[in-house]
Structure formats: C-alpha cells, structure tokens
Amino acid sequence: MFEKFTSLDFDLLGQSEIVTPGDDLQRTDEWLHDRKGHYTGSKGKEFMSCTTKSKNKMWGDPEKTVDFGSSAEKYIYTVGMERTTGILSMKKTAKQMEHGTTHEPLLIQQLKQDGVISEFEELGFERFKEWSTGGASVDGRCLYINTNERLGLEIKCTVSWDGHYDRMYEPVHDKHKDFWQFQFEMLSLGVDKLLYVVAYPMQVELYDVTIIKASKVHQKCIIERCKIADAAIELWKEHPRNKGEALKIACANYSELHIN
C-alpha cells in the first residue's frame, strides 16, 4: 500500500476533528532531567563524528571508533559537564524546532486517520539497555498497519525543501542526516526497525514513509564510544585542566585492548 519514498496525498475536506495533543512526555523539566549527562540520539551525528584520519576506514574498525572528531569532543565535554556539575546548558529554540513541536502531534493524528499507523504510544527519554549512559527520545511506538509490525516511530516536520532534501534525496546510509539518530533510537527501544515519516514543508497532509533497519555494526560502535567517553569523563578527576588529555588516554587504553 505504501511504498518507500512515495508521497501520499489525501483529501481532508470534511474532516473537522480537532486534534488535541495529550500530555507531552518530551521537552518537559522531567525530560530534561532524564537526558542530563547522557549521550542522546539528537546529537548522535556529532557524537559519532571523526577526523579525516579515518575517512577511508569502515565502521567496525577500532581505529575509526577511537578517531573522535572535534564535534564529538565538544559534545563529550557538554555531557561530562552536565554530569559532573548537574548544570544544564540553556535551551536553544529555533523556528524549525518550534514548527516540529507544534506539528508532530498533528502529523501523528494524520497518520492514524490515513490508516498508516494505530496503537500509538508516546515515549519520553529511553536509555540503552546495554549501556545506560546512552539513550534517545523516540517519538513513540506504533503498529505499522501495512506490515502489521510494531515499530519505533520517528517523524520529521520539515519547513523547507532544503530540509526535505537532506532526508529524502537518497536512501538512508551512514552519511544521512538522521542515520545516527535512528541507530540510537533503535538501541534505546531494543528494536530492529523504525518507521520514518517525513512531512512535506509546512504541512502534514503530504508525507513520505519508509522503514529503517538497524545496523548492528554501527550500533556496536555507538556503545563502544559511550564506554570510551565515560572512561574519559572519569579521568577528568586526574586531568581537571586538560580534559582533552583524558580522552586521549581513554582512547589509548581502548586501542591497547582492541587494536593489534
């Protein structure tokens, strides 16, 4: 019924149901507290960044795992400071995020009305089962009616064709804008598939639907990086004025065990 990367057009004339979102489990004080000091899916791309040193290596190679890029180092610093001080950074709210916050409940309702999903369950911040300092804020779980599978659900309400291009121009691969977020989310739910829905700009009546599959190789690398980063943060006690050195030591210790 619904094919990958195929837009779905529905006539909504006559549909007068008022959509009233329920209690939001995300973007609350409790949600912020749960995420504090954790590696999260929304920052997965930054956390898994590398330098050019390992650009020709594949994920699964320990040398790529320990090749933390500058974005990863900065993110580890943020997580570590939240964890050790208990102080959160000021929230940044962009117009794009405001649009998503407002329209995500409407898109979920649209998916229900169109017979794409049912049995939707909203979720907050879910931690990895294997390593609890990592996690993700998945939009929810649902029954995907087309295949009768219960899947995680990630939805994107775009505001421009540029944003839509970033997500839909090519099939999902490890350079895709949301790839690492998907892997974080599937790890946090303990599932192998995720339903990915991307709305056309500034509305919810048109959207694309596809199923994303887990990559065990990439997910293992996420867990390994969580372990290395945690070890580095622990080493801050010995290197309070040179936190970069702590990460180098943690990477060296990991390399000694995993690289011949």
Q: Under the CATH scheme, which class of the largest domain? A: Alpha Beta
For the biggest sheet, the summary is: 6 strands, mixed
User: How many beta strands in the DSSP annotation?
Assistant: 9
* Shape assignment: globular
- Strand arrangement across the biggest beta sheet: 1-9-8-7-6-3
Estimate the mean pLDDT confidence.
89
Which stretches are low in confidence, meaning pLDDT under 50 for 5 or more residues running? 1-23
Secondary-structure element string: EHEHHHHEEEEEHHEEHH
Could you say what the CATH topology of the largest domain is called? Lambda Exonuclease, Chain A
Radius of gyration: 20 Å
Helix content: 40-55%
Total count of helical runs of at least 4 residues: 9
Name the beta content range. Answer: 15-25%
- Tell me what the CATH architecture of the largest domain is: Alpha-Beta Complex
Which structural class is indicated by helix and strand composition? alpha+beta
Integer tally of domains: 2
Give the termini separation: 50 Å
Structural write-up:
The protein has 260 residues and is an alpha+beta fold. The protein folds into two domains: 34-89 and 230-258, no CATH class; 93-217, Lambda Exonuclease, Chain A. The protein contains nine helices and nine strands. It has helices at residues 29-35, 44-47, 62-65, 70-85, 95-113, 161-168, 179-189, 216-235, 243-258; strands at residues 7-8, 39-40, 117-122, 125-127, 134-137, 140-144, 149-157, 193-199, 207-213. A six-stranded mixed beta sheet has the order 1-9-8-7-6-3, sandwiched between helices. The protein has a three-stranded mixed beta sheet with strand order 2-5-4, sandwiched between helices. Strand 6 (140-144) and strand 7 (149-157) form a beta hairpin. The longest helix is centred in the C-terminal third of the chain and has 20 residues, at 216-235. The termini are far apart.
